[in-house]
Each structure stands twice: as structure tokens, then as C-alpha cells.
């Protein structure tokens, strides 16, 4: 199907500009801090950006999760919340939106993504089974492990190489998956865990050809294929841009086609779906749905609210429709790319190609003098905050945690600091500030010292770990 996608004025004239398809109605003031204030805040936070107060942050690029700006229509929808305990009208709106845009039959709302991950992991994994996936994500893998599953990374090798320009670095290596099935037998595979754009690889997409191939392989062995749809709309954009035959297809059609090759999906609606809180699970199989719908009442709430208020579900239903508009997603990714191009032009090492939701600074290349156990990515996040009050997130050895069996640190190939761009929140001028600050700390990289971890909690340690400057 061809269709005239809405274009910015610049694009209509064949120019590169990606301007936003909205204007600003309400603003939120930002607080500027002095270097002394930031020094104090950082040391109180144990050099962990998760432990900073947001009042001490100028530009907050910690995450794109729940940090999006809602539209006037979403806010209007909030006033239409039906806060009935059971059968809220807003649940049916959400269900309708999910059926229309993602195409799954049955829907279970959850309070956020990890609520959905918990339910699907508990229902679909038997202890000792393998869960192959395209690179780990922290909460996803933890829930799979808590359910007794063994996560196996079957992503293409390109994903582990920050400089590889492969257009679909999120793809599953079908050979690796087949080898696992052969070695362990199909019955030992709980399901294939496929994420649409791979967060930890740099927001890298999966191709339509890859999901088709996976569908065929899963059918052959009677294995289920479930999708982490958290940033699947962004993935659809890359298919439209890079995959033959999709240039003229609307994002909404690409999204639905892709989901159609999978048996179900879980979602952190705090990303693509343009809300501040929410998640969902959606499947096509009635029996599985019944189990999930039963379990949700134990952990989240009744199956027509799943831990959310009616108004949250309404905002989500509206956000879903807005998120699949071509002009929206083009400007969203256009902004991320703008920042990436500035940094690339200045010779700063970042994961290439620039992905959907963030710029990932390659901390290993930034600080070659630091060993991985001196936490280069955590160090970089601290330096950036000190320079300009910009908050970023470590995605390296601290995030990777420890091997549950041996207790050793995982040493991930990628040691990255993520500059994550919230949707519809910051301007191009803010991106310039960020680029200049990264350049400033890059220029003084030779004298930067690393960190030592002095407190390490048991689960998802990166959230609450504390660090000290080495040799201070
Ligand atoms: C992100 C987050 C939020 C987060 C989670 C853990 C550590 C630090 C920050 C959340 C995701 C995600 C994917 C692909 C599931 C979740 C969990 N991402 N899948 O990137 O990216 O969703 O946060 O709503 O529970 O900052 P949840």
C-alpha cells in the first residue's frame, strides 16, 4: 500500500530538516546549578546518576522511560478517566487501540514493562528452560532468571561491535538460535525473546526479513516467539528507512506486519506509547491469556486495570495512535540523529549507526587508560554531570551485574554511557548544549581517573550502587 505520509515543510522541499509536528503550549522551568553544587550533589549520590535528585539536574537524559511530554489530547483524555474498579471504559479504549495498531487479540494491562515481564516469564518459562534473545535487557533477563530460565544471547555479532555499520544490528543470528535448539532440543526452549530495537546494543533495529525467518524457524520447531515491543515503533521507522520494499509503507502498517509474525508482546508503554506510566501484555492465544489474566490479579490488580488508573489507560490509548504517525516518529529519531551527527563530526566515539532512542558514548574508546573494572561508563556519566548538569546512564559493567552461578562480574563487550532523549521534551538548542559538554569532557579525557564500587546491592545493582573516585 502506498500512502502520502505527512512531511515537514523542509522535507516537502527535499531538505533534510525534521522539525517537530507540534508546538509548545506549556513549559517547565529548569534549574541551573554551579559546579560546586554539582560536585556536592554527585558525591552525595555516590557517583551514581540514579541517586541524584532531579532538581540538581539541568538536562535529564537518564532515560526516555516515562519522561515523555503528553499532548493536549492526552491530557484531555486524562479527564475522561473512568475510575471504576472493574470494566473501566478506558480499558476498552486501550484494548481497541492495541488491536488496531499492534494487532494482538487479547490484552492485559500492567503498571509498567517489568510487571508484564514478570507475568509472561512466570507463565511461559519452566525451570531449567532456555530463553534465547537478541541481547539481554536488565529487567527482562532478571525476570526470566527469577522464573528459572537461562538467558542465551543469540544476537548477531555486529551488535557487539560499536563501529559496525550493519543496518540491522538488532537481528537474531538464526544460525546461533538453530544451534541452541539442536543442542538443547526444542522442548527446552521456553520461547524466543525478541526485542524491537535493542536497547543495550544502542537502540539498534531488527529487520522484517529477520522476524519472518524467525517465524518460520519457530513454526518448524513449535516454539513461541514473543516480542518486547517497548520501542517497536522506532524499529518500524528503521525498516521504512532501510529495508527494501518498505519506503512507501506507513509506520502503522509496518508495525502491524511485524507484530503479526509474533505470538504476543510485552510493553513498557513509558517509551513508544508516550505516557508517564503504564505497560501491557498482549497475546493471541486464549489459554495463555487466561493464565496471564489470572496471574495479573495477584501482582498488579484486576485484569481491566493492572495497576493503572483509568486515566492512565486513556492517555495510553491516545498516545498509541499519536506514536505511529509518520511525522512524529521521523522527528523523534531526527532529533536523536541530529545530536549523533554533531558528535560524529567532532570525532567523538559513539555507537554507530545512531539508534532510535539515544546516543551511546563508547566509554572504552573515550577512556582507554581505564580498565573495565574502573567503570569507564560510570566515570563518563559522572564527568558529564560535573561539567554541565547533564544526567546520563551507565550501560556497561555496572549494569551487566554478576553471573548468578559463579558470582563473577559480567564483562560486557560494550561499555557505554547513554544519552537518552525523552520524546517531545527538549529542543535542538538543548542538543547543542549536550554536544558541547560531551566535547569538553572529551578534550580533557586524558587526565580523568576511574571509579571503585564501594556498595553493591543484590538486585539490579546499577540503580543503587555507590562509587568513589580512584586515587582521590
Ligand atoms: C530504560 C528503561 C528503564 C530502566 C529499566 C532498567 C534499568 C534502567 C532503566 C526499560 C525497559 C526496556 C526494555 C527494552 C523492558 C523495560 C522495562 N527501560 N524492556 O531504557 O528498555 O520496562 O521500565 O517500564 O519496567 O531506561 P519498565
In short:
By secondary structure, the protein is an alpha/beta fold.
Count of individual beta strands:
14
What structural category arises from helix and sheet content? alpha/beta
Largest sheet: 5 strands, mixed
Tell me, rounded to a whole number, the average pLDDT: 96
Percentage of residues assigned to helices? 25-40%
First CA to last CA: what distance? 62 Å
Bound molecules: ligand P71
The radius of gyration over CA amounts to 22 Å
Estimated share of beta-strand residues = 5-15%
**Major sheet: order of its strands?**
2-8-7-6-5
Low-confidence stretches: none
Our count of helices gives 17
Structure description:
The chain is α/β, with parallel strands linked by helices. It is 39% helix and 12% strand. It has 17 helices and 14 strands. It has helices at residues 9-12, 35-44, 72-78, 89-101, 113-124, 138-146, 174-184, 208-221, 232-242, 251-260, 286-299, 310-323, 326-345, 363-366, 376-388, 397-400, 428-443, and strands spanning 59-60, 106-110, 130-133, 150-153, 192-195, 225-228, 264-268, 279-283, 358-362, 390-391, 393-395, 416-420, 451-455, 466-469. The strands form five sheets. The protein has a five-stranded mixed beta sheet with strand order 2-8-7-6-5, sandwiched between helices. It has a three-stranded antiparallel beta sheet with strand order 9-12-11. A two-stranded parallel sheet has the order 1-10. Helix 8 links the parallel strand 5 (192-195) and strand 6 (225-228). Helix 3 (72-78) runs antiparallel to helix 12, helix 5 runs parallel beside helix 6 (138-146) and helix 13 packs parallel to helix 17. 49% of the residues are buried. Ligand P71 is lined by residues 63, 65, 112-114, 137-140, 195, 199, 228, 230, 268, 270, 279. Ligand P71 binds at residues 63, 65, 112-114, 137-140, 195, 199, 228, 230, 268, 270, 279.
